[in-house]
Amino acid sequence: MDEAIIVDAEFVAPVGTTAGEFVPIDRAPAAGLLLLVAFVVLYAKVISKLGKPAIQEFLWEIITRIVPSKQLRRRKEAQLRAIEVHTQRSNTSSQDQFAKWAKLDREYGKLKVEIEDINNSLTASKARFFTIISSAIFLSTTGMKMFLRIKHRKAAIFWLPKNAFPYPIEYILSFSSAPLGSVSVSAWLMICDAAMDLIVTIFVALVVGVIGMLRSNKVKPKTA
Q1: If 204 and its partner were Cys, which of 15, 49, 63, 94 is the partner (CB 3.0–4.6 Å)?
Q2: Model confidence over 210-222: pLDDT tens digits?
Q3: What gap in Å lies between CA 42 and CA 50, rounded to an integer?
Q4: pTM of the complete model
């Protein structure tokens, strides 16, 4: 065939191209990539709606409950002892029993310093933990989106019906490097982001409402 090599009903190879040189475009939708992008957008939306500070506080609370902390145990013991010493000092006369009162006062002062040091150490540990969680959230949301855009910039998530949209729209949907007539990863990320925004908002509102109802029922006073 001199003018062209017909590959299928839709695609015609350029003039002068041999059958061995022409590689037809696979128009099958990339289901795995499509679902991965949708999941990443959904995950990022949930994280955004819950809020990074709330997630950090929740995970810190879980960690401190699951993993025994010597500092927390020491602080609790020091606080209990401080209350006990403060009570004894209050019940001791500084005039009639000055030696005992002074001893209790020195011990109470040492306990206050110890508790403050433990609190400072816990604050530093909590700040480091929050930094780790913040980095993990960034990498798994914004970082993951950037990775998908770069790694699969030439991939076609799925193909649009032929001649269904004008050229400018096809160009935008295929931006930046996907084949013309297809939907690129960048475009699919934006589409999923817009579509899931409302879905996640409704879902989070329902969850918060259910939690609020459960809490209100839990503390609801019993009537005789």
Answers
A1: 49
A2: 888 877 776 555 5
A3: 12
A4: 0.64
- Digit-coded pLDDT (tens) for 152-185: 888 888 888 887 788 888 888 888 788 888 888 8
Which tokens belong to 207? 């969850």
- How is the chain split into domains, by residue range? 1-28, 31-60+68-211
pLDDT in tens, 47-88: 888 889 999 999 988 888 887 778 888 888 888 989 998 888
Give the whole-angstrom CA distance, residue 184 versus residue 152. Answer: 8
For residues 190 and 157, the answer to whether their CB atoms sit within 8 Å is no
* Tokens representing residue 176 in the block: 């930046």
Averaged pLDDT for residues 135-161: 89
